[in-house]
Each structure stands twice: as structure tokens, then as C-alpha cells.
Amino acid sequence: MNLKKTVPAVVLGTLLLAGCGGQEEKVKLENHLDQASYGVGLNIGRQLSQEGVDMNADAVAAGIKDALSGAEPRIDDETLKAAFDKVREEQVRKQEALNDAAAKASEEFLAKNAKRDEVTVTESGLQYEVLKSGDDSQPTPSATDTVRVHYHGTLTDGTVFDSSVERGEPAQFPVNGVIKGWIEALQMMHVGDKWKLYVPADLAYGARSPSPAIPANSALIFEVELLEIVK
Description:
- By secondary structure, this protein is an alpha+beta fold.
- Helix content is 39%, strand content 19%.
């Protein structure tokens, strides 16, 4: 959670509807200013929700209302700073717990998955199974090639975090521009192959999560179809 970004976003978003709780039903959204103000509130709420921040909506609205009216702040700066620090510490603890849980779940999943007859485990720890074999006479990309693929990415619990299949548009990128597990797998695949990859965290994003949808230390699962090597 980036409080330096989140907190100013709340302060600057002072066009938020001016009340919560029992006041909600009285808020009118009839003109463009009211609607835009409500949109600002939605964006702030969505940002806080995505970051997993527990906030008191009535208190947020009270702070915005006081700022709009020029009222004296009800809490001094020192108390506010201490509160922000406390929230930050709690968020860090929660995230560390989630990361530890993700790492443990990933290790258990991969250990069990490696025992399946359909799964091949490489020296690096990458696991894969062949869903569809293309023609062996078709080329295999090198690290410097650009490829066009369809893919469907999930966490080990089946949660989808990215999918060119769902978007209905194949992706194109250089082989050496993706995660290590993909770099290794693509250079073993022939055009026309479709594989299912089980990528350990150290061959994916490791401790650095690229998105709230992917917890740190997560093993990732991809169905990858190599459509062509782009010339």
C-alpha cells in the first residue's frame, strides 16, 4: 500500500459526495457535476479496495466535507501521521502473511503436481504438460525471436489473472522479454504446440508482485499456444 499516493488522492478528491451513512439517500446525481463528483468517490473507493485498505467511509466523507467547508481539522497533524503509520504497518503485516501463505500453497501444489505422469519437470524446476503437439518439422523460436501466442494465466487455485484467450486477441512479444519460465518453455516448443506450464515463483515474478491479482511468491499456471514466429 502506497500511503503517500493514497492519502493525497483522498484529499485531492474533494468533489466526493458530501456525506455517508444516513445521508446517502439524499445525495442527488442529476447533473454532470454531481455525477463527476460521485465518479471521483467511486475511483477513490476502488483504489482503496484494490489495495485492501480498511477505511471508515463515514470518516472519509467527514474529512472531505471539512476540507470543502474550510473547517478546522478535527485531528492534529501529529495524530494523523501516527494513524497513517499504524495503517501502513498493519498493511505490511497482512501482505507478508498473504505472501507466506502463497509461497506455502505454491510449494505444496508443485510438489503434488510433479508426481503426475503427464507432467515433465525440467532441471530449473519448470513443470509442463503437452496439451497439443504441432508438427515437429515446424520451427522452434530462439531467445531473440518475436512470437505470437495465445495464453490463459491462472493462480494455483484457478483464479484468472490474465488471458489473451478471454480478450480474443493473441499476444506478441520477444521471447527474452517475458518471465524465465516462459523463456525456457518457448524455446522448447514448436509452432502449433499448446502446453500447460506450471511456473515456480522464482521462474515467474518471485517476491515482487507485478499486480494485486498476483500475490508475491506465487507459482503460476499458463496454457500457452505458440501460433507463429514473427518475421
